[in-house]
Each structure stands twice: as structure tokens, then as C-alpha cells.
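RECORD TYPE: inverse folding
INPUT: C-alpha cells
STRUCTURE:
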């Protein structure tokens, strides 16, 4: 016969195990350019020792203009995270490059009991700080890193604007190096496929599979087909 004391211990152990099973580790990746690779971010997370239960990624989404809650997968992440979960990101800028949005996001996750960890430098943001001084230091570090991400984004945009201005200044109508905008990520054949299938009422997912393009590219073409055609014409 099992003693009441032992039964109580077994019940506590089982409850602890069940609670542990409910905790999950998620990797969130924001892939906003062709140079950023989702597989690379996953490889880095695993190499850092994280056993990932799931990977959530937003593709082609601006970290400055689009808030975390408004991104397709970012919104899903807000719905998924629970107390005890761990959210892994390559760096804070993957959450966004908007100071207010990033600080609000991290604080919301900490209030839920979620721990946010970065792969680079192994930073940890959680709600474990009990005294005001420790909490203030943690919040100051959160704000500093969020501000740095936005500042870096602004510096990149400024450099791009300067490059565009210089190219336009040299434009004389015959200069092959004159500014032509961003090079299209699709071919004339792919554009024709998108327009043909879209005209037949085919869904975006099916168009993307048929054309070999990302959904984001299909959406951009659908939103302004004339601009897509003009871009191809400029780039020959």
C-alpha cells in the first residue's frame, strides 16, 4: 500500500513534470532581406544549445513600419506564448527596429512570464528581478538595445537615400548606371504567370507555387501590376 505521504510526493512530481511538458521554446525570426537566411538563424540557435519546439518566421516585413502584433506570424506568436515559455531571437532587432514597439513587446512577454533570450551575446530578459534597482537596470538595457536597433535602421536608410540621390544626380537619360530603383525579383515569364492566374481568380498561395515566387512578391505584383511591368522595362 502506498502511504499518503508518498502519494502526495508522486502527485507533486507528476504535476511538475506536466507543467514542464507544457513549457516550450520558440525561435522567432524576421527575414526582411535576401541576405538574411532563416536556416542560418535556426542553425545558430541550435548551436547555442537551444532545443526548439517550433520556429515562427515573418518574411519581407519591415521591422520599422510594421509592429510585432501586426505581422502575420508575430500576431500568432503573441497568441502562442504562455508563462514559462522561452522566446529565442538572434538579436533584439529581429523583434523590430522601432524603439516603442520593441520595448512594449519585451515588457508584455515578461509580464506573461515569458523569458526572452538572444543568441548573440546570450542576453536574458525576464520578469525575475524582484528589487526596483535590478528591474531598472534590466529595463534600461532593454531600452538601449531597442533604441540601437532603430538607430541602425535609420542609418541604413540614410545611406540608401544618399546613394539614390547620387545616382539620380548623374542621370542624363543615357547613363546606364542611372538610378532605376530596386532590381525586380521576378522575370517577365513569372510576371505573366502571376497576371494570368490572378485574372482567373487563383489564390495567392497557388500562384506562388506555380510561378516560383514568394507570396510577398505575388502580393506586390497584384497590388500594382503597372509598376511591376515598368520595373522590368527599366531593367531590360
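DESIGNED SEQUENCE:
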Amino acid at each position: 500500500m502506498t502511504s499518503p505521504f508518498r502519494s502526495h510526493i508522486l502527485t507533486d512530481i507528476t504535476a511538475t513534470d506536466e507543467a514542464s511538458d507544457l513549457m516550450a521554446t520558440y525561435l522567432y525570426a524576421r527575414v526582411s532581406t535576401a541576405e538574411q537566411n532563416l536556416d542560418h538563424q535556426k542553425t545558430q540557435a541550435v548551436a547555442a544549445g537551444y532545443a526548439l519546439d517550433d520556429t515562427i518566421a515573418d518574411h519581407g516585413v519591415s521591422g520599422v513600419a510594421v509592429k510585432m502584433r501586426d505581422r502575420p506570424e508575430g500576431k500568432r506568436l503573441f497568441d502562442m506564448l504562455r508563462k514559462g515559455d522561452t522566446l529565442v531571437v538572434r538579436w533584439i532587432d529581429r523583434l523590430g527596429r522601432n524603439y516603442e514597439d520593441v520595448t512594449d513587446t519585451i515588457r508584455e512577454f515578461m509580464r506573461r512570464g515569458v523569458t526572452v533570450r538572444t543568441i548573440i551575446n546570450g542576453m536574458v530578459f525576464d520578469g525575475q528581478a524582484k528589487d526596483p534597482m535590478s528591474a531598472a537596470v534590466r529595463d534600461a538595457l532593454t531600452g538601449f538595445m531597442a533604441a540601437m536597433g532603430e538607430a541602425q535602421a535609420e542609418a541604413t536608410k540614410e545611406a540608401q537615400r544618399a546613394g539614390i540621390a547620387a545616382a539620380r544626380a548623374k542621370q542624363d537619360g543615357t547613363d546606364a548606371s542611372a538610378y532605376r530603383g530596386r532590381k525586380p525579383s521576378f522575370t517577365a515569364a513569372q510576371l505573366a504567370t502571376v497576371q494570368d492566374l490572378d485574372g482567373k481568380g487563383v489564390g495567392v498561395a497557388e500562384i506562388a507555387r506555380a510561378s516560383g515566387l514568394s507570396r510577398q512578391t505575388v502580393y506586390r505584383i497584384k497590388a500594382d501590376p503597372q509598376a511591376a511591368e515598368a520595373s522590368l522595362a527599366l531593367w531590360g
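NOTES: The longest strand covers residues 25-31.
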